[in-house]
Amino acid sequence: MNNAVFSQKERNIIILIIVLFLGAILMYALKGIFSAILGTMVMYTLFRNLNRFLIENWHWPKPLSSVFIIIISLFIIVLPFVGIGSMLLNKARELQDNPDWINSIIDAINTFVGDKLGKPDFLKEQLEASAAYAGELLTAVLGMAANIFLEISVMYFILYFLFVNYKGFENGIVFYMPFDAENAVEFGNELKNITYSNIVGQTFIAIVQGGCLALGFWIFDVSDPLFWGVICAILSFIPLIGPPLIFVPAAMILFAEGQSWQAVGLLLWGFGLVINIDNVLRLIIAKKIGDIHPIITVVGVIIGLPLFGIMGLVYGPLLLAYFLIAVKIYKANKRLALKRDQLEQH
């Protein structure tokens, strides 16, 4: 005789509720390293084939393969960010030690705006208004740097064990995914293509655009073309909008300094070449790797920056693209379920 208070079905429901409740608590506790978890997923997707090749074709020990990939990724991905940060810091120190250049730009802009708009102290007013914000921003950037170091450490710690136990990890994902085998394969392929398109493709676009803008700055005699090319490459992760944030103010400064033909030439170079390179390369990458629509990229950046800081330029569009893939698979599953129901009725 069974005297149990709950039936087997009721016990399963209660256990599921407990699992969801504890999972929600864990998700809330892990919110501070959510970008590290997302970064782990991105890195695993990028280097998954290399890990399998080293282990299955070259018969490397799994820990050795994992450490080798981590070292390679440090050189390819992390160290360039360290170099960019160092370049920005050196530029800030240079401007602090030698303020003549920035002062001459301020005077030229004040003169230009004073003649055109009747506000000779326009830039001074704007700088005074933003002084407090700049102090807060510096504090935030320092805190962000410490947080990025922590996230990178957590990311590589998790990534090591995922590469070592890659078969168990992938089998577990397939087992717990609410998709059938065909949709699981499609989801994996789209996930890989979108990741490669956004990381590899967009990085290539950014480098080309930054290089072209640096060349334009050199041709039209704008100071520090390499530095501004690097800044343009970073902002190029925002399609169409990013590069003009660099070359339009530079052209305004050239106008203010009386270099009218250089300013016009820089604007033509920027709008005619730099921006259109984005459009051409994006079409090529969409055909070769995968397509992320510019609207998804822009909206993803808007979503990603408040969540992940500077890494939101990459993670934001990816997160939105992953969400849209999940919706697409859900719609496919729903259509299959409707077809099955119709067949059963007949």
Automatic annotation (TrEMBL):
Instruction: Tell whether Lipid biosynthesis is among the UniProt keywords.
Output: no
In the bilayer, the protein is annotated as:
Multi-pass membrane protein
Which Pfam families does this entry report, sorted A to Z? Answer: AI-2E_transport (PF01594)
* GO CC terms, sorted: membrane
Q: What is its main location?
A: membrane
Transmembrane feature ranges: 36-55, 67-89, 137-163, 199-220, 226-254, 266-286, 292-325
Q: Which domain of life is it from?
A: Bacteria
What keywords does the record list, in alphabetical order?
Membrane, Transmembrane, Transmembrane helix
Cite the InterPro entries for this sequence: AI-2E-like
User: Where in the cell is the protein located?
Assistant: Membrane
| The UniProt record lists the keyword Membrane | yes
PANTHER family named among the record's database cross-references: TRANSMEMBRANE PROTEIN, TRANSMEMBRANE PROTEIN 245
The text of the family note is:
Belongs to the autoinducer-2 exporter (AI-2E) (TC 2.A.86) family.
Protein known as: AI-2E family transporter
- Native source organism of the sequence: Sphingobacterium alkalisoli
